[in-house]
Amino acid sequence: MILLTIYSGVWMPDLYQQIEAAILTSDARHKCALTVQLDDQWKQGLLNRSAGSAILPIDDPGRPQQPELVDPRKLERRSVATEHGRVCLLHAFAHIEFNAINIALDAAYRFREMPPRFVSDWLLVASEEARHFQLLEDELRRRESFYGAHQAHRGLWDMVCQTRDDVLHRMALVPRVMEARGLDVTPGMMAKFTQVEDQAAVEILQVIYRDEVGHVRIGNYWYQQLCEQQGLDASKTFRELIELYMGGKLRGPLNRSARLEAGFKAAELNALEQGLL
User: Fold this and answer.
1) Would 265 be classed as within a structural domain?
2) Please, which pLDDT band fits residue 54 given cuts at 50, 70 and 90?
3) What radius of gyration, in Å, describes the C-alpha atoms of the chain?
4) What is the pLDDT of residues 190-226, one digit of tens each?
5) Within a domain: residue 210?
6) What's residue 51's pLDDT?
């Protein structure tokens, strides 16, 4: 059922029920279409934000029956040396981007105390993640594969569940840890694909890398804003949250130039690099 609310004499769909429907949609292509539509409708002022629909916990967002989700340690080894390995790597990126759609939508859906700009930012991120997924899925199809053909893991959504009660924790640990890690590793992956002259893969990863800098910048902005509002030292609080959620462990090396462009401070990066794995 779609909830409609009268706003300025016009019946308008409820923003949060629309986002909820997109998160719970299991068909990947349909989820992408709904996400892009949501972003467009929000930008045009066609969604009502004031309706008080319930916030679901969403332990498991909608996803296709495949891929099979397994422990990360059980995933098959992936190498650019063979076409099969390259397909597996592109599948892994597709899985990350599919999860990223749900993750961005969940931020806009869950933290309703945040201002309209927060909704705008995360719906934009979600629509860009949907575009990334579609690029990767199209490339997998071109290579006679598809999303779901290989095993994957659910570690990305586990962190979303752990931080669903605190928007500051979410902004600290999802964009500033999980997405920022993509900034660290993607250039190396592009270099490996370049070595085997897989230009199609390189071009897709370039699009993703460019957009992910902006996504991390959005997370950094809201994290800093929340720390200022709560009178917290942002760097100290981040280290405390890394200790609380991750046992104080971050993987390195860090891509300093990309992280600086995405809003990290040089002094903070210096401190983080001292405790890297």
Assistant:
1) yes
2) very high
3) 19
4) 999 999 999 999 999 999 999 999 999 999 999 999 9
5) yes
6) 61
CB–CB of 87/145 below 8 Å?
yes
Separation CA 44–CA 191 (nearest Å)? 40
SS3 45: coil
Cα dihedral across residues 105, 109, 115, 119: positive or negative: positive
The helix/strand/coil state of 262 is coil
How far is the CA of 158 from the CAs of 58, 178, 218, 234, in angstroms? 11, 11, 21, 24
Residue 29 lies in a domain: no
Residues 6+ apart with CB under 8 A from 151: 67, 68, 69, 70, 74, 75, 76
- The separation between CA 19 and the C-alpha centre of its own chain, rounded to angstroms, equals 15
Residue 8, helix vs strand vs coil: coil
The boundaries of the domain holding residue 183 are 79-273
Count of domains forming the chain:
1
pTM for the structure as a whole = 0.94
CA distances from 247 to 198, 208, 273, 277 (A): 38, 29, 15, 11
Q: Is residue 70 part of a domain?
A: no
CATH number of the domain within which 202 lies: 1.20.1260.10
One-letter identity of residue 79: S
**Could you read off the pLDDT of 80-90 as tens digits, one per residue?**
999 999 999 99
Residue 231 has pLDDT above 50, yes or no: yes
Query: In the predicted model, what is the mean pLDDT of residues 73-102?
Result: 92
